[in-house]
Amino acid sequence: MNTPRTIHVIDDEPIILEVLSQLLTSEGYEVESSSSGEEALQKYETRTFDLVLLDLMMPGMSGLDVLRALQRINPQALVIIITAYASVESAIEAMKIGAFDYVQKPFKHEELLLTIARALDHKSLRDENLRLRGELDRKFSFSNIISRSRAMEKVFDLIRAAAPTRSTILIEGESGTGKELVARAIHQNSNRSGFPFVVVNSGSLPPDLLESHLFGHVKGAFTGAVSEKQGLFEAADKGTIFFDEISSIGLETQAKLLRVMQDREFMRLGGTKTIRVDVRIIAATNTDLEVLIDQRAFRKDLFYRLNVIKIPLPPLRERKDDIPLLVKHFIDIFARENGKPIEGVSEDVLEILENHDWEGNVRELENLVERAVVFARSPVITRDNLPDGILGPHRREAAVLEAEGDGQSLHDQTLTFQKRLIETTLRRAKGIQKNAARMLDVKPTTLNEMIKRLRIDVDEF
């Protein structure tokens, strides 16, 4: 059952208070009455109302004084002015201050109820917009990017410094590291957050179609252009345009993009009218653009325009301290979406996840956790819920150790286990002994001594 809307009627005439109270109560509203501005403001100290009906002409505090005081208490206060014909000018002044509308005495009941309904519809839309904006702010706030690693702290520092500026930003990182999430966080924490955030999937369209999407076209510009079309740059005016995987844009389109960045203006395909825009550009790439420049696949001048502020995102294998946090975060999301009481993962599962290479980065981990939640049959995710692809290496290593242990003394089996463990860790650390030592929780000097004693060939890694 819906909670009734509350309306506060403020008028010094008892008969008006009585008539309005009966009318509005019969329509299902909850009504509070006050015979003076002073009384009304005292009530606002303890509660708020969905709508206020406010008489302009009252002894003591005038309606305009009450309106100003209400807005100081609650800038979102929704007020309809009740006025006599002689004070219409004051009612218009009240609307300039912030009143929603006014009705004249003597008013018709149908007219008043229609104005109230229109005002409350406006409030519902405004409240929904504020709620959605709040969700966006929470979802894309950089403080909501899940991390406790030092590598990501550097990213946070760059976001804090870059977000309030107008500067172009280049985000570098492997696929799945969250480049779009960072771009949205920058937008949401900038003074452009109230304007559009437009994503350009650079690699998903052929060059001619991409240009039409970016700049728009006029009717007849090419076969199939049956009407005029606005481009993404126009749609993003005063906001942010995000080029995902900008390395896939062709050289001809790169030249046109460079001109837009330099001049902040362009023409639609087939058009002659110059269109000016105020757009901040954020670009992302999973490819080294300087290598592409050497290969003549990317313009050097465009790279310098993009590379004003560079934000490199570390792959998940370099921020493994974040894996427990990310796992918990994704479990909370997918357990709620699927209505399952999943509390966490077993210790051996967490160890497997922390030792995995995660070539697909955070996106790969997210997909794996979603799958595990779906298949889990208990409150704790176990290794039975993990795909063979992530379990395979662990099972093979266990089988090798078991086979090699046959007939060996405890001492020899221990050495064999140590050697295999160090070799596996070196392989995961890509031969970097300092990282392998950290993963094994031993000093680098200790690891180096063990490598020599166990005659491990480090050149293999």
Describe the 3D structure:
The chain is of the alpha/beta class and 461 residues long. The protein folds into four domains: 130 residues, 3-Layer(aba) Sandwich (Rossmann fold); 174 residues, 3-Layer(aba) Sandwich (Rossmann fold); 70 residues, Orthogonal Bundle (Helicase, Ruva Protein, domain 3); 69 residues, Orthogonal Bundle (Arc Repressor Mutant, subunit A). It is built from 19 helices and 14 strands. A five-stranded parallel β-sheet has the order 2-1-3-4-5, sandwiched between helices. The longest helix has 32 residues. The chain is extended and about 100 Å long. The mean pLDDT is 85.
The assigned CATH architecture of the largest domain is 3-Layer(aba) Sandwich
CATH class of the largest domain: Alpha Beta
Shape: extended
> What is the number of independent domains?
4
* CATH topology-level name of the largest domain: Rossmann fold
Cα end-to-end separation: 67 Å
Query: Which runs of at least 5 residues are low in confidence (pLDDT < 50)?
Result: none
What is the SS-derived class?
Answer: alpha/beta
Mean pLDDT: 85
What is the number of E strands?
Answer: 14
Number of helical stretches of at least 4 residues: 19
Radius of gyration: 32 Å
Which percent range describes the beta-strand content? 5-15%
Helix content: 40-55%
Quaternary organization: single chain
CATH superfamily of the largest domain: P-loop containing nucleotide triphosphate hydrolases
- Biggest sheet, in brief? 5 strands, parallel
Strand order of the largest sheet: 2-1-3-4-5
